[in-house]
């Protein structure tokens, strides 16, 4: 039997996160969510009203806390940098995503 070695798609993760996001909306006290960048991008996109297509390209930098305060018609965002290295660190494979669709329509990238 051949086993497929593939990860979850963003749509799979969105479906898995939906009940958790619904439960998060019920809470009135502050919540701290720690997770992988992909998970955090989906939660951020939901609260900021972004589309599923935009979610993979949300900037969630390392060493940064993104504070969201949802209200009836919008969500206030504040970012807190926890650590700024004094010298360049080796790459960890967590580079910021590049939106290939924006690059195709951006005249400066040609």
Residue share in helix: 25-40%
The count of DSSP E runs of length 2 or more, i.e. the number of strands, is 2
Q: Could you say which structural class the secondary elements and strand pairing correspond to?
A: alpha+beta
Radius of gyration: 17 Å
State the fourth-level CATH superfamily.
Phosphoglycerate mutase-like
Tell me the major beta sheet.
Answer: 2 strands, antiparallel
As laid out across the biggest beta sheet, the strand order is 1-2
Low-confidence stretches: 103-110
CATH fold title: Rossmann fold
* Helix-strand string: HHEEH
CATH class: Alpha Beta
Provide the CATH architecture: 3-Layer(aba) Sandwich
Overall residue-averaged pLDDT value = 83
Protein name: Bifunctional 6-phosphofructo-2-kinase
GO molecular function: 6-phosphofructo-2-kinase activity; ATP binding; fructose-2,6-bisphosphate 2-phosphatase activity
Region (Disordered): 86-110
Pfam families: His_Phos_1 (PF00300)
